[in-house]
Amino acid sequence: MKNSPFFVNIVIHGRRMNKFFAYMKREPVMSTALVLAAAAVCIVHPSGGRILACINVRVLAQLFCLMLTIQAFRSIHVLDALAAGVLELCSSIRVLFFTLVGMVFFCSMIVTNDVALLTFVPFTLIICRKANSNSVTDIVTPHMTAVLVVLETLAANLGSSITPMGNPQNLFLYSFYKISSAAFFGVTLRIGIPSLIMLCAAVLYETRNSGRIEVHIGKVYIESFVKCIIYTVVLVVNLLAVFRVVDYRIAFAVTMIAAAACNIRLFLHIDYSLLLTFTGFFIFTGTVSDIPAVSVFLRRILDRPFSVFAAGILVSQIISNVPAALLLSGFTRNSRQLLLGVNIGGLGTLIASLASIISYKLFRIENVNRQDTGYFRIFTVYNFVFLVFLTGIVWALEYYL
Length: 401
Known about the structure:
The protein is an all-alpha fold. Helices cover 75% and strands 0% of the residues.
């Protein structure tokens, strides 16, 4: 019986279903987006053409190209080499803090917040561990390491908020509302400048009693300078596409050809769950907006600038800022307030920004079975302090200027 084809097929099918549900469980945001999209389609019964019209192909193509390009740079260790070269110059814990937090802040503007954290948090953990390896006492204590990773997380979320390609919600809003570059930076710098000042103040406070340190992490070399040049050209083409200088379809073709020619395996390392998340929310918001009662109700709630700003912050605390931007954009034309709200909304709870979860997981893996460093408490305190102060500062700038 157990060897019968029917029984074997049931076992194989069961294993596949278990893998499918395990994958869906690992990607709760994507799962939510797809369930909501399926529910909306079942209720509204839109035509196939309407479903396709809900999907913003331009945003998906640009997001795919940027992810592929950044993975290309990571594959030849460009960011690792940059980090290693700069960190060798650090002479004290304060300089180390400023260097790492600063690099995450500015790099996240181009390589996105999650990639910046995936690059620099592991480096941070290695550096802190090596700084203590030859010492009787810890030079960089576990508590200080936790503080540094939390500040890097803040830097990634805040630095990435400044540019259209810094994070997915910015790329979407920049394209969806057709915001001009001047108008976009005029909005986001109201977050960027105060947040940079606050980060510097936090570093000065946390390193007030710090001492000297020597960082030796070894040389890291770029794997191929030819590929580096090719990927740089591809990145420039994609940035030009983001700023609408080059057609996104040309950028897509250039990226696909370069990746296929240089390293076909790059396609295996794309975050396809993020693309599916976008697709699910595109279909959900587009379909739900066709229901008159729902559309009128939500548009009435989001008819004032402050309500959009507050909704962007509050909804982000529950479902994270990328889905919040996708969800709310379908019911308001207040692009400025929504852009501010979802970017500030990346602060606060751990799930407010998916990038925050990345750094938390990396830190937990490094510190498994070790003493409690108070990471979650440090993260919560700093995030809500930054959230409260930036909310007040940004809205004051909006009101008075």
